[in-house]
């Protein structure tokens, strides 16, 4: 499945150079019949998700400076270091817990579309609120990269973000970007590639403030789910949703859809 | 494929989930959300250093207070939109004239004579040159210039971050009307394309409020209807006032129609939420994004490609067959009179009562696939039917359509008055959605009943309002 090592750069110095890395990006537009990895783009509305999407795919999906712009999923592709990536732009949402269609589309894709990497685009000027979504994404998938976008705007307002500290806390790579100016995109690509091919393992943050009663209930249910579906990578999240009475997830479990997804050897093409 | 059924195991898991849930106290959802918020705050606190808690720059707050103020919000909105329409109308006149001079004044005679010299059969020349070519030429010359000015302006305003402020202003009236505040955003999308606006209602959680948003989205003027507004306002409203005020009056008329659309949205939402779609209003928080300097070249590029050329292309695609159909219907005789004339004759009594005419009603039937071709269809039908009833020198009428002024002469020959122009603007606002939107509504609601309501409600309102306007106008 995963190649043990991606194409090795000729020299270490080159690998660290932006020009070299950017030159390895080939924008594929919508031409993605085959791909090695699926990358999902999640994020709050108006954080520049579509700008990141356009910068990587070379597509010109209209980006609007207002929430609710992307309701359906947009897909595109790019090639980086001889690996083909399919990029799926999810609707911008503040959370993944409500029943509105846009949140469901985002949640279903993370859960059932099984992206190899989920890039969470966060607004550096409003990090606290953006982390709410990032934490929810990390509950579902453990292969994520946080794109700390609009870092230039944050700088103008005198806000500094310690991305190393944040990366340690979240347990996933954090890349400061200014996507409109193209800043940070080479680093973002490198981080995505490392997480995608397994060179970099994430140890995602888990919620620490849960009430003890909930934690014990979760432990019990997770154990039961894991013994039935040993391949399920996000048993904890499924347990949490079941405890919350999420009919959607319960239905997926009952129909076998959930189990079936994780026994396939190949990641499925973006499912509906 | 895994074929072993997981059902018994799944049922066991669901069973214990139910039992565990019952043992938990309090609202689990709330507890989880609280845990997430607490962690987000803690993590952000560890890595973010900011002098003023990331507050918006003061000038942004000052601007926001102004453009979303209770007193100034709406006047500023109307003024900005009027300015945009004025720039469009006054800027589009000259290029429109040049284009129609080129396509209709110069190229058309060459094509026409060339076809005759080549010995093309009259019917083939008719279908291709007088039908398909002319319809397309009209589409390009009447629609391209206003759209090439309007869409980039609208996109610039959008990129700047003004639209969320408009949504903010509209939030309160929407709430009072019993609709969801987020509908302000799907309405804004509707000003581009109603099909997109209907899809955008997915951001509304409550099915009741979402349905209201879908049913009323058509009252937002879409891309395909702007050219009709601009042309009618220029020809018929501008001429009601002294020449130096013509541009402003035309722009004001377009603003008024667009604003009327929003008022009708409120009124219909209010009516629906108090009768068939009763229920509570949900609350939500709307984030006002920071103002960002628009990327001007990029905006120009995307708005020209995505919107202007997209709409133009759609219009051309529908205009080609429509042109052929119109020409054939105008030249296919049934019992001595042409098919088009029969249809126009049948529709005319209804049209006249509504302050419109048979040509307009027929054009709206032809234009169900795309609003974009209403104007070209109206022009062709007017010219063809005017010729058939003996007005003008046959196809010669068409040679003189070099400027908007002569366009008006053609329409006046067809019996148009200022009332016809104004009522066409109103009917363009209030008529059935295009077939794409109807299909989208069906897909989104999954209900034939609500699709029918969404389709027929605007037509009924359109008939009612144009009828009342005609009544008042003639009463004077």
**Tell me, what's the shape of chain A?**
globular
* Protein chain pair with the most extensive contact, residues per chain: A-B, 74 and 73 residues
* Number of beta strands of chain A: 8
- The average pLDDT value of chain A, as a whole number, equals 78
**Which band does the percent of strand residues of chain B land in?**
under 5%
CATH homologous superfamily of the largest domain in chain A? P-loop containing nucleotide triphosphate hydrolases
SSE order of chain A: HHEEHEEHEHEHEHEHHHHH
Strand order of the largest sheet of chain A: 1-3-4-2-5-6-8
Label this structure with key terms:
heterodimer, A: 272 residues, alpha/beta, Rossmann fold, seven-stranded mixed beta sheet, disordered N terminus, B: 476 residues, mainly alpha, two-stranded antiparallel sheet, 19 helices
Structure description:
The complex is a heterodimer of chains A (272) and B (476). By secondary structure, chain A is α/β, with parallel strands linked by helices. Chain A has twelve helices and eight strands. A seven-stranded mixed beta sheet of chain A has the order 1-3-4-2-5-6-8, with helices on both faces. Chain A is globular and about 50 Å long. The two termini of chain A are 23 Å apart. Chain B has one domain (67-475). With 476 residues, chain B is mostly helical. In chain B, α7 runs antiparallel to α8 (194-200) and α9 packs antiparallel against α11. Chain B has a two-stranded antiparallel sheet. The radius of gyration of chain B is 27 Å and the shape is globular. The interface between A and B is large, with 74 and 73 residues. β7 (160-161) of chain A pairs antiparallel with β1 of chain B, so a sheet runs across the interface.
């Amino acid at each position: 499945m995963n190649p043990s090592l991606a194409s090795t750069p000729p020299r270490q110095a080159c690998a660290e150079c932006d020009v070299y890395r950017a030159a390895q990006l080939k924008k594929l537009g919508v031409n993605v019949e085959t791909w090695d990895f699926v990358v999902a783009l999640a994020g709050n509305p108006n954080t520049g998700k579509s700008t990141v999407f356009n910068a990587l795919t070379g597509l010109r999906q209209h980006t609007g400076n207002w929430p609710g712009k992307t309701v359906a999923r947009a897909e595109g592709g790019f090639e980086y270091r001889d690996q083909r990536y399919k990029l799926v732009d999810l609707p911008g949402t503040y959370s993944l817990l409500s029943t509105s269609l846009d949140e469901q589309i985002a949640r279903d894709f993370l859960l059932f579309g099984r992206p190899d990497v989920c890039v969470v685009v966060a607004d550096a000027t409003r990090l606290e609120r953006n982390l709410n979504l990032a934490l929810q994404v990390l509950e579902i998938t453990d292969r994520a990269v946080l794109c700390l976008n609009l870092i230039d705007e944050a700088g103008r307002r005198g806000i500094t973000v310690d991305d190393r500290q944040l990366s340690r806390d979240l347990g996933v790579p954090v890349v400061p970007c200014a996507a409109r100016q193209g800043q940070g995109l080479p680093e973002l690509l490198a981080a995505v590639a490392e997480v995608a091919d397994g060179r970099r393992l994430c140890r995602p943050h888990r919620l620490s403030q849960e009430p003890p009663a909930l934690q014990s209930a979760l432990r019990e249910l997770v154990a039961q789910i894991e013994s039935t579906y040993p391949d399920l990578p996000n048993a904890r999240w499924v347990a949490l949703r079941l405890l919350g009475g999420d009919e959607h997830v319960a239905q997926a479990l009952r129909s076998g859809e959930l189990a079936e997804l994780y026994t396939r050897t190949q990641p499925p093409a973006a499912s509906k | 494929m895994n074929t072993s059924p997981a059902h018994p195991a799944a049922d066991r898991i669901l069973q214990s989930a139910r039992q565990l849930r019952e043992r938990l106290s309090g609202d689990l959802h709330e507890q989880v959300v609280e845990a997430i918020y607490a962690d987000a705050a803690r993590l952000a606190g560890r890595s973010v250093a900011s002098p003023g808690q990331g507050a918006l720059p003061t000038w942004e707050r000052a601007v926001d207070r102004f453009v979303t103020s209770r007193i100034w919000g709406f006047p500023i909105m109307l003024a900005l939109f009027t300015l945009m329409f004025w720039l469009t109308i006054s800027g589009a006149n000259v290029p429109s004239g040049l284009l129609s001079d080129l396509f209709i004044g110069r190229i058309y005679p060459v094509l026409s004579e060339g076809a005759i010299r080549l010995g093309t059969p009259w019917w083939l020349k008719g279908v291709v040159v007088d039908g398909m070519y002319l319809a397309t030429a009209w589409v390009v010359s009447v629609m391209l210039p206003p759209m090439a000015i309007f869409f980039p302006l609208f996109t610039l305003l959008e990129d700047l971050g003004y639209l969320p402020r408009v949504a903010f202003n509209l939030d309160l009236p929407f709430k009072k009307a019993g609709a969801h505040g987020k509908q302000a955003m799907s309405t804004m999308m509707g000003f581009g394309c109603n099909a997109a606006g209907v899809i955008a209602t997915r951001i509304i959680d409550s099915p009741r409020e979402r349905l209201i948003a879908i049913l009323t989205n058509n009252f937002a003027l879409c891309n395909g209807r702007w050219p009709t507004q601009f042309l009618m306002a220029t020809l018929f409203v501008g001429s009601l006032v002294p020449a130096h005020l013509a541009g402003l009056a035309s722009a004001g008329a377009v603003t008024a129609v667009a604003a009327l659309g929003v008022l009708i949205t409120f009124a219909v939402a209010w009516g629906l939420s108090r009768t068939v779609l009763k229920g509570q209003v949900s609350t939500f928080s709307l984030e006002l994004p920071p103002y960002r300097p628009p990327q001007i070249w990029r905006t120009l590029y995307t708005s020209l490609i995505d919107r202007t050329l997209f709409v133009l292309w759609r219009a051309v695609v529908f205009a080609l067959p429509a042109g052929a159909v119109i020409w054939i219907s105008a030249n296919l005789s049934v019992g001595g009179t042409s098919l088009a004339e029969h249809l126009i004759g049948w529709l005319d009594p209804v049209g006249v009562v509504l302050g419109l005419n048979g040509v307009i009603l027929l054009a709206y039937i032809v234009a169900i696939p795309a609003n974009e071709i209403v104007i070209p269809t109206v022009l062709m039908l007017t010219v063809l039917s005017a010729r058939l009833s003996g007005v003008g020198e046959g196809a010669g009428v068409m040679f003189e359509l070099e400027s908007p002024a002569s366009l008006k002469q053609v329409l006046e020959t067809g019996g148009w008055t200022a009332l016809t122009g104004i009522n066409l603007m109103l009917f363009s606002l209030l008529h059935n959605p295009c077939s794409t939107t109807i299909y989208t509504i069906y897909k989104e609601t999954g209900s034939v009943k609500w699709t029918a309501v969404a389709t027929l409600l605007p037509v009924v309102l359109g008939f009612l309002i144009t009828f009342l306007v005609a009544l008042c106008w003639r009463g004077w």
